[in-house]
């Protein structure tokens, strides 16, 4: 039986909504549409990152299927995977679970970074966003976008603006530019007005495209 994940929501959310509604006409209209919905954090750091690697470049359904086989192989729970368990797996067995050779390499590299302390998980709460991104992108298979999603969804950092995110750019295009394409520079200018709660505004723009909450 899989235990339900502990769900954590940001303490700053209500204050952020008030701030954004006061400063931004789009947010003033958008925020009330989603009631009491909040950003949510589930699982632990290693599991969140491992799952993001498993899901790269495949459909959500395919990713879920591979993840379930992989987590069973590793003897973990859907909400918690241990680095040591991943390092103890045989490569052919990981391939048979549906993982590509490259993703096997990425997962083993991630597990190594966590097991040898190359990533400073216990210090992350005291580190700034860019320092954490720098640590994470040193892991094979993790780019800046994945690191920014981790900052938003796992560490719940309030002021992340993921300019490489297609959904954010589309949300800005539809809500601020009447559907016209927007450049990164234009998106950054819009996002500057949301500080220090750019993550919250980004989350609401994602919701404007898809009412189902985004989770990682």
From TrEMBL:
Catalytic activity: Hydrolysis of alkylated DNA, releasing 3-methyladenine, 3-methylguanine, 7-methylguanine and 7-methyladenine
SMART domains for this protein: ENDO3c
GO biological process: base-excision repair, AP site formation; DNA alkylation repair
GO MF, any single term: DNA-3-methyladenine glycosylase activity
Residues in HhH-GPD domain copies: 54-210
Domain of life: Bacteria
Annotated CDD domains: ENDO3c (cd00056)
Main EC class the enzyme belongs to: hydrolase
GO cellular-component term (any): protein-DNA complex
Enzyme Commission code(s) on record: 3.2.2.21
Record's keyword terms, sorted: DNA damage, DNA repair
Alphabetized PANTHER family for the sequence: DNA-3-METHYLADENINE GLYCOSYLASE (PTHR43003)
Similarity comment: Belongs to the alkylbase DNA glycosidase AlkA family.
Protein name: DNA-3-methyladenine glycosylase II
Provenance organism: Azohydromonas caseinilytica
């Amino acid at each position: 039986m899989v235990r339900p994940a502990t769900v954590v929501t940001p303490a700053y959310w209500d204050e952020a909504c008030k701030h954004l509604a006061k400063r931004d006409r789009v947010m003033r209209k958008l925020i009330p549409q989603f009631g009491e919905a909040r950003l949510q954090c589930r699982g632990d750091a290693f599991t969140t990152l491992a799952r993001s690697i498993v899901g790269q470049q495949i459909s959500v359904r395919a990713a879920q299927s591979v993840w379930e086989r992989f987590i069973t192989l590793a003897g973990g729970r859907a909400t918690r995977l241990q680095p040591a368990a991943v390092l103890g797996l045989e490569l052919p067995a990981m391939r048979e679970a549906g993982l590509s050779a490259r993703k096997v390499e990425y997962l083993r590299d991630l597990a190594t970074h966590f097991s040898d302390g190359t990533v400073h998980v216990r210090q992350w709460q005291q580190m700034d966003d860019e320092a954490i991104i720098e640590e994470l992108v040193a892991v094979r298979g993790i780019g800046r976008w994945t690191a920014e999603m981790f900052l938003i969804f796992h560490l719940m950092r309030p002021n992340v603006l993921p300019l490489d995110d297609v959904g954010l750019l589309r949300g800005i295009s539809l809500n601020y530019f009447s559907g016209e394409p927007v450049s990164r520079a234009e998106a950054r200018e819009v996002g500057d007005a949301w500080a220090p709660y750019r993550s919250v505004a980004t989350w609401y723009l994602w919701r404007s495209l898809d009412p189902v909450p985004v989770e990682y």
